[in-house]
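Researcher: I'm preparing a figure for a lab meeting and need a structural model of a single chain. I don't have an experimental structure, so a prediction will have to do for now. The sequence is pasted below. Please return the structure as tokens so I can convert it later.
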Amino acid sequence: MMRRDVFITNPPQGDYYLNPAGFTWHVRRATGQEGSALSIAVADRNRKTALARLLSLAEADQADAWENEGGSFRLIKRFRSPVPTP
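Model: Understood. Here is the structure written out token by token.
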């Protein structure tokens, strides 16, 4: 069975995402307002370093990790527990 990528237009509040900016990578945390975020780590030159930081923060906060893919966001790893349905 193949895993399908999950894309959304904006990450949910509290989730972390990786944002490329030229030759550097930024880790940000969504605030829940349309398009606004807190800068957590700025200017990592290596994508692997930024990705490790992103995954570590997301896991510690039980949030999801996303990557900006030019206007939409792709889920990298889910750490949030599923919400039980009533």
